[in-house]
Amino acid sequence: MAVEWKTPEGEPVIQVHDLGIEFLKGRKRNLSLRELVYRRRTTYEKETFWALRNVSFDVGRAEAVGLVGANGGGKSTLLKMIAGTLLPDEGYAEVTEGVAPMIELTGGFIGELSARENIYLMAGLHGMKKETVDARFDDIVKFAGPQVERGLDLPFRHFSSGMQVRLGFSVITQLDEPIILVDEVLAVGDRAFREQCYKRMEELLAEGRSMFLVSHSEGDLKRFCTRGLYLSGGTLVDDGPMKDVLDHYNKDLDAGIS
Amino acid sequence: MNSHNRLARIWAHRATLDTLVRRDLRVRYARSVLGYLWTLIDPLAMALVYAFVFGFIYGGHGKPGLSSSSDQKWASTDGVPIVLFLVAGLLAYNWFSNVINESSRALYAERLLVRSTNLPRELWVMRVVISKGIEHLLSLPILLGFLVFYMLRGEVSLSWEIVFWIPALIVQFILLTGIGLVMAPVTALVDDFARITRIGLRVLFYVTPIVYSLHFLEAKLPEGWGWAKVLIQLNPLTGIADMYRAGFVTEYGPDWMAWLYALIVSLAWLAFGSWVFRKLEPAILKEI
């Protein structure tokens, strides 16, 4: 199955230009009305930090990009901005193709509904038509494994967390979107399932998709990615072949910089 | 992104909206034994309580002769039996208050989904308005039931103006979408806001002509208080409730002024809501 691109060949599918996002530091979720009113008198303005700033790069068709960097470097933030689930304060991240986000995989499932209903719901939320879900339903279930298959009509809350992630992965990888975003989801699941996931991702890549992978596993990065981006302290430190970027990152780690 | 693009994106995702609404209704009606009956029982119980308090205790329609206003039956409700008059306003008010309460949690309650899907975020609000709207439609048989009951007793007659239920639904949909677009982001950012709106809703119930009619209020207002009437007409729910009653209130014609205000105020809310939502969207996504 070939991937359908809307973008003309040779043009980037992801354009990130001067991207920046600012967060409040050490803030509880909500502001109270009092804080909002007196905001100017407090040190509010100083309590922010840039999770990402001045980040620019392009990604073309069929590129597999690995993001490396220490915790807090801005990897997940960048991924979310490409997925469109965070909006920039500076610059832009323009994505001209559909995105299949493997971020918070089990977030959309509802415990009260059956697994079957949840599959339709989740696929629908990510833009899959009902007929397409009908056609791929068996594949989705089969990929998620025999335990899921046996419990299709049980309420979803009876599923173990591992089974939930399996089903989430299984649904998202059936989307036809040309760009895949993967945020460390491979760390969960047992070894057999991980192997299955690797295989599936290789298939997706072989079909010519673009991919973004966030991972702390050097093996995974080398296996899937050709290009690497190294983020540190919210800025893009290195952009090049995966192997070189990893060397750079490891050198920084040894020197205690990152 | 400008408003036109936003609208186009929402339209492109209408199938998703449909999925979300179906999910809401399935969760709501699949979980309880009585299911649909709750949609009827709840407003029915409230209507009977209000009718008892305002119709029989305060209204004095118990024994003929005891009441001071017995010369003009149902004076406080435009000559219509109080239960019927009240249910028309109450159902509209219920839709309103359900949406306000629910939309204040619309983004936060679904934060896992909001964080993992790139849908137009307005959908999370519209979905609440529509699901509650369908529940509202499903509760209209109560009003129809009372209408038929009183028609059979010969106490009211029905006119073609019953078709004004349709503009009532449309105007209220616009109004609720606008207010919901303000409620959802603001309550996600400011804790206290939900409490303020709870008080506001309670006040709103009594400043909307639900348990009394605007004509009755007007007659009771002291000299020089004409502005109070205009203020109540400016409340969009006044016009909306009046549209629901146009088909069976025969003593007075429709309150066109209130209708016009309802439409204008609703459109203004929609514009204001879209603006607020667009302004707060980046902040919300960081916070949830």
From TrEMBL, chain A:
A Pfam family hit: ABC_tran
A GO term from the CC aspect: membrane
Classification via InterPro entries: AAA+_ATPase, ABC_transporter-like_ATP-bd, ABC_transporter-like_CS, ABC_transpr_TagH-like, Bact_Polysacc_Export_ATP-bd, P-loop_NTPase
N-terminal signal peptide: none
Alphabetic keyword roster: ATP-binding, Nucleotide-binding, Transport
UniProt cross-references to SMART domains, sorted A to Z: AAA (SM00382)
ABC transporter domain residues: 31-258
Example GO molecular function: ABC-type transporter activity
CDD domains: ABC_KpsT_Wzt
Similarity comment text for this entry: Belongs to the ABC transporter superfamily.
Protein's recorded name: ABC transporter ATP-binding protein
Organism: Dermacoccus abyssi
From TrEMBL, chain B:
Compartment(s) of residence: Cell inner membrane; Cell membrane
Keywords: Cell inner membrane, Cell membrane, Membrane, Transmembrane, Transmembrane helix, Transport
A biological process from GO: lipopolysaccharide transport
ABC transmembrane type-2 domain: residues covered: 34-280
InterPro entries found in the cross-reference section: ABC2_TM, ABC2_TM_bact-type
GO MF annotation list: ABC-type transporter activity
Membrane-topology descriptor: Multi-pass membrane protein
The keyword Transmembrane helix is annotated on this UniProt entry: yes
Transmembrane stretches, start-end: 33-59, 79-96, 134-152, 164-187, 199-217, 258-277
Main location: membrane
Pfam families: ABC2_membrane
Keyword Membrane tagged: yes
Family: Belongs to the ABC-2 integral membrane protein family.
PANTHER family in alphabetical order: INNER MEMBRANE TRANSPORT PERMEASE, TRANSPORT PERMEASE PROTEIN
UniProt-recorded name of the protein: Transport permease protein
Organism: Dermacoccus abyssi
